[in-house]
Amino acid sequence: MKEFIYILVSAIIVQTPLFGQQTYPTLSVTKGEVVEIRSALGQGTLFDTSIDKVRAQVDQFVTTGLDVPVPKDLAGGYTHEQHKKNFLILQKAGLLFQITEEEKYAILIKETLFKYREMYPKLERHPSTKSYARGKLFWQCLNDANWLVYVSQAYDCIYDWLSEKERKELNKELFVPMANFLSVETPRFFNRLHNHSTWANAAVGMIGLVMENEDLVQKALNGLPMSKEALKDNDGGSITLKGQKKAGFLAQIDFSFSPDGYYTEGPYYQRYAMYPFLIFALALDNSKPEVKIFEYNNEVLIKGVYALLNQTNAKGEFFPLNDAQKGMSYFSRELKLALSLAYQYGTKDPSLLSLIELQESVPLIYSGMQAALAIKEGKTIPFVKKSVMLRDGAKGDEGAIGILRADKEGEVDLIMKYAKHGMGHGHFDRLSYSMFYGEQEVLQDYGAARWVNINQKDGGGYLKENKTWAKQTVAHNTVVVDEKSQFRGKVKAADAIAPTSYIFDVDNPNLQVVSAKDTNCYTGVELQRTMILLKDSSFENPLVLDLFAVNSEEEHDLLLPYYYKGQLMQTNIDFKQSTTLSAMGESDGFQHLWKEAEGKAAEGVTQINWFDKATFFTLTSTTTASDNIITAHIGANDPNFNLRHDPAFFLQKKGKKGRTLFASILETHGKYSRVSEFATNAYGSITDITIIDNTSEYTVVNFTNKQDEEWTFIISNKQRSDASKHRLTIENREIKWGGPFTLFKNELEQ
Amino acid sequence: MKEFIYILVSAIIVQTPLFGQQTYPTLSVTKGEVVEIRSALGQGTLFDTSIDKVRAQVDQFVTTGLDVPVPKDLAGGYTHEQHKKNFLILQKAGLLFQITEEEKYAILIKETLFKYREMYPKLERHPSTKSYARGKLFWQCLNDANWLVYVSQAYDCIYDWLSEKERKELNKELFVPMANFLSVETPRFFNRLHNHSTWANAAVGMIGLVMENEDLVQKALNGLPMSKEALKDNDGGSITLKGQKKAGFLAQIDFSFSPDGYYTEGPYYQRYAMYPFLIFALALDNSKPEVKIFEYNNEVLIKGVYALLNQTNAKGEFFPLNDAQKGMSYFSRELKLALSLAYQYGTKDPSLLSLIELQESVPLIYSGMQAALAIKEGKTIPFVKKSVMLRDGAKGDEGAIGILRADKEGEVDLIMKYAKHGMGHGHFDRLSYSMFYGEQEVLQDYGAARWVNINQKDGGGYLKENKTWAKQTVAHNTVVVDEKSQFRGKVKAADAIAPTSYIFDVDNPNLQVVSAKDTNCYTGVELQRTMILLKDSSFENPLVLDLFAVNSEEEHDLLLPYYYKGQLMQTNIDFKQSTTLSAMGESDGFQHLWKEAEGKAAEGVTQINWFDKATFFTLTSTTTASDNIITAHIGANDPNFNLRHDPAFFLQKKGKKGRTLFASILETHGKYSRVSEFATNAYGSITDITIIDNTSEYTVVNFTNKQDEEWTFIISNKQRSDASKHRLTIENREIKWGGPFTLFKNELEQ
């Protein structure tokens, strides 16, 4: 009965007169979709519980109204947080009005918009001068664009409920000026290829669609005429990219996504950018279906959602590549929109429903209802994360992120980074890797030095230490040459050329291999890292075999950091602890490391055993007695306590020329309970690693465990073809195999 | 039908001939109880699922048998862990045999016991010489006693199933020698008042009960004749206590527990000791009901269980007072026994059932079945932890642990320690406090420097740094005088005299007060700490007002450490970071602290704001410009990486004589989500604290918040009676009140 009444009421609304050509709403839901949504209410779906949650958030402001203060503060401060709250609440109020037809929501939007209409024409740019593109409501245009992306949806939902006079006034005094401000008045922001500018393109386009202002929509899609100047932003990133010939929303899609849906700034920013990409795409699909935006570029927007999901750990948190605040996950509001749309506009993939169930709410739009109904119908199947290479670059030929996973979900995520630099948010971290075991970080990527929106930390923006520490090479688990960062820390040089993907082979889940090369980040130095994730019944958990080869004609000092988590338990070398601690250097991030202890490495293998949460880890590395092992922790030259004081150890090989190989195995093993106080398998199993050969042609290593079982791994460093045939004589045995690598177990001689 | 058969079968068994006077089993279950247990099986209770779990653990060894290796290793090593596994499995096998009547379990026990019978007579004391009381199966007698406490239960369960010849052989060749070894052959271990010796007493008593050997039972209950020598153990603790006139199990109860059930070594060791206390008590109650052991000393054993439960945080983890490994909780096997027995032999308190449900299993004994049946009948009610003072000392007049709690479970646990020293496991931590907010530590007690049973950390025993760091005063949140530990770090002096409880008043849940004094730990220095947990609608969460008063005729340097968790966010003082880090001192724990930064305190109040997990914390302290603030982290002089590198800050007041007051407020406030990236209430609310008066008679402080609300707290330092009447003139106002303290809000002057 209830549904019937809804249909009847909405049928009447459908027949109200139209303005211009358009039926409202038109952005995130259409009139027809609203009718369908109303008819499906009350079945106890996730959509119903989502409405209840959203009502609870919005209803508290229905009587009090929303404050619209004169802009003053940075992120974390009152005026910033209030304007942010306003746009989030108004967008929700708009959908509630459409779905419930309760006028109180429309009134809340109208009254708030007229407060903005009063204030906005009087505003100059924000008093803070921190941004190269200062906003009016916020300290940077980015946040003004956020505001307009959300508020245009609210406006759309009440557009035909407002009087013509009200619409005209709001269009003329608030929305057209705001759209102009974000575009023609701030062209170097609007025309940039960058996640911030994607928000601006979407904002201008969406308000254009609401106002039926085709000029704004075209600017949004195709940008403004290109400037000739070479401009920089306040982080030192280039405003105009080399060879950039177009701008606007379509150019953002072309440029930012690789054919695999990887976004060059990394998953943290991809998550952020996916909202304007997808919400404007949805609006375009509703208003301009002829654009076929979801099919654009081989459906790259939908691929982008899958790329994001595959870049998460067992907790759903994005790998903290490049500038990224740790902890951001697929539970974010952006991913709630993304999953429903990927379900609806993709292949109706039922495995996405399992993640939507985890999110415990759906967006209040048509695709949210479709996902909720499918869940109710029991269509959900588990989402299985895969070992996957996500190529970078618009053509997919500029490096990649290689992700190796053990087949038991969440058991091991190994992430090797050999992607493009990632522009202003990139880190100098080529060939670094990080690793998760279940929900825990084993080797960490530091992420960004920033507390987003926490005011006491420099207004929530990037801290000075983000540049001096977090971006530097030594802050990552990759070889540092001569205590300098890759490309001497120059973004422009790093942006110009990517590493080379050499092998990514995950066909055999028990022997997954990724290998990449870089010859640019250090002049005259060739780097190749090969990582193998090996499952073998001789070992409790998958092993990581890591072969980091360095080749140079000149002598160089090499340092390989390991940012482990937890407590160092035991090593086979004698450490000498410093009696006073000094910084490890003066620049390139070394100034932020306190050197704690140092020891001569063992001749043969150096072993370091540590413990974190409930698990033990052991790293076994080939070393000679001329190598050093250093332990350190972060925190030197940090007067404002901006850095986490996390520990690290380093393998150091000084004065190396020719071919040098860091060969290591990382074992995950054992368990310890603080309740039962039982420890099992607290020691690693690997006893030896031997470098048999390391030429430009082949790298060959043997490794042995406590049961005297021995394995040999061989990789061809020149022939990557699966069809290649190889023959090598090792220790008087002739080995033959096909393809670029092989692993075999040696029979024990009796 | 099934139950009927069980009864029939067991009725037959009851009629088998008896040996001596006794019916078997007799220790943890009796023949009659077993009949009742069998008849209650199969109702889907927690007891049924517990049997399934225990079967799964034991069945894997039924065919393989249990290895009985020649003792060699320390904790964490193979032989140690195997013998430990053996006793745990055998005890379970015994109960399974009784309950299921499946002979395979009896056979497993018999075969294993005969392996021990073969080996034991040939054993010398363990090759490791680390312990003052070396065992035979293990490196210390303690573990041999553990073995016998568990295995005597297994033996009891098959005693009348064995042939007389088998019994005689095992008694003569294994169990009597073992009981003699633990008692007459190791008298300074057996006669000690200590948790280790409680295990020995119980072991000898329990095997005595099984073998109907009254001599052993009497030794267990009353000890051996006392030695005249003053002996020490290998940790430097006294073997014989001052004035100790008796030994044995009853003396352990008399001496170790206060009338409130607090155990002087602290909750970590109480948890460990509760197993032999309770299992031997149960055996005595079954075999010698005339002892009325559960009523002994005003039912102190049952009170001990409640004392333990009240010393846990929201995760059920024991407060890590004295030597304690963090993470030990009421999910331990000892507490599983304890809760069932406290239910059965206490008041059948239905709130205990809620914790038993959390434990997800019950012990396979009669009380376990009774608890499981009560849960099935729906009798469970929540267990509510209380604000409670747990007095220390056999008479309850030697200090206490004061626990203040906010009434919302888990919201705040504030633990102030003014108990006895706690013998060899005590820390020099008088008047220190620690705090939990929900499941997170806000101010930590370091606990012990030890990884129990992790072999690579010195065999799992206490590390050198336990003495040089963890026990020292500076490792705790209490005032350190002249950079020396209390009592100059001498256990004997500290053991001799306890602090004085002054006030513990929790009648008003919004204003809870604990205050204690010490005049002994520093010669010529009077210490009094008063802590107030204040709930007021002006503050988001309960405030902690901390008044630490120091009085001395001579000049002293005072230092108050705060071992916070998380990231320092902001302060109102200028810190100068050291360019090289040095240890803060050379002894008394200071040699383990790296000094990081120092700043002149503010004139008025110094504020430090930090963030951990999702919550902000702000400490506001009265300071003058002559005070210093120091930040540091643990880890100096730690060549084996035995310490956690946790952070701290310190308030330093140098060259003070007469009366000095550290007046501070700790606020818990705000929230931050790394997913929504919203921060709320990130700053504290307190703006000022003023010391109005601090005489031997009264301490008076005002404090103010951002809304200019002002409060005054007054405590009488001499009159603690609730009946006392007070009159004071403060800032020209006359204040009158009754009782030792008062808090009032000042009206603002218009």
UniProtKB/TrEMBL annotation, chains A, B:
Q: Which residues form the Alginate lyase domain?
A: 93-313
Gene3D superfamilies (UniProt xref): 2.70.98.70, Chondroitin AC/alginate lyase (1.50.10.100)
Q: What is its main location?
A: periplasm
Annotated ranges, domain Heparinase II/III-like C-terminal: 390-599
Q: Which domain of life is it from?
A: Bacteria
Got a GO cellular component term for this one? Answer: periplasmic space
Q: Which keywords are on file for this protein?
A: Lyase, Periplasm, Signal
State its location(s): Periplasm
The UniProt entry, under Pfam families, shows:
Alginate_lyase, Hepar_II_III_C
| Single GO MF annotation | lyase activity
What is this protein identified as? Alginate lyase family protein
Q: Supply the source organism for this entry.
A: Flammeovirga pectinis
